[in-house]
């Protein structure tokens, strides 16, 4: 091991020891951004950038499992991404399906977070099958955000809530009275789960782009310049250290 590698390992261990004194996030969100820019900088194809990024997701989840983080939401494909060229999108569907299979094989519980209607039928069927194959005692649940948009999620939640109330025979005024923060939250894609404590975005972009728009009202954010395929365990540890040092006020 060269001197740089040794220093890296020493620093990584030191960060890990620092975190032992803190409570880590119970729900971590990550926007995996920069696959195409990484590929361009590396002289690789866009598809190869997505493949390397997909492999990084599986590695990232193993780090989260080791740290005892029980819930991770990974944004793999946004509703805006659905407008990409058909050839790129077709390759991306295959890569995403493959990485979900790897996540399941790793023993993690997979949960779709997004609009399944926007995905090809074969992909929907594959994801539905994988969701049914839940490990009996998984230490990590992974929300895979595919065909996901924050505004679309809220619209879907309100529509589902209105349909449910209408099915109960309630009139327009009664339905309006039933709509609340709590009732909408019960119809989100992440229903029954805690809101994210920390959201990480790679590639230097400092915006959420609608990711977990409703759920992130009290989340902490951490942005880094690194493109997703180059994201390292030490980057995750630095993000967690920064999170642990903050005083969370929850709007107070």
From TrEMBL:
Residue numbers binding Mg(2+): 33, 220
Q: Which domain of life is it from?
A: Bacteria
Task: Extract the InterPro entries matched here.
Answer: UPP_synth-like, UPP_synth-like_CS, UPP_synth-like_sf
What's any one GO cellular component for it? plasma membrane
For biological process, the GO terms are: polyprenol biosynthetic process
Which UniProt keywords are given for this protein, alphabetically ordered?
Magnesium, Metal-binding, Transferase
The record's SUPFAM superfamilies line, in alphabetical order, gives:
Undecaprenyl diphosphate synthase
Where is substrate bound in this sequence? 34-38, 50, 78-80, 84, 201, 207-209
UniProt cross-references to Pfam families, sorted A to Z: Prenyltransf
Keyword Calcium in record: no
What cofactor does this one take? Mg(2+)
Root EC class: transferase
Q: Where is the active site?
A: 33, 81
Instruction: Give the cofactor note text.
Output: Binds 2 magnesium ions per subunit.
Documented EC number(s):
2.5.1.-
As one GO molecular function, the record gives:
ditrans,polycis-polyprenyl diphosphate synthase [(2E,6E)-farnesyl diphosphate specific] activity
- Subunit record text: Homodimer.
HAMAP family documented for this protein: ISPT (MF_01139)
Functional note: Catalyzes the condensation of isopentenyl diphosphate (IPP) with allylic pyrophosphates generating different type of terpenoids.
What does the sequence similarity comment in the record state about its family? Answer: Belongs to the UPP synthase family. Z-FPP synthase subfamily.
Q: What is this protein called?
A: Isoprenyl transferase
Q: Which organism is it from?
A: Candidatus Brachybacterium intestinipullorum
Recall the taxonomic lineage recorded for the source organism: Bacteria, Bacillati, Actinomycetota, Actinomycetes, Micrococcales
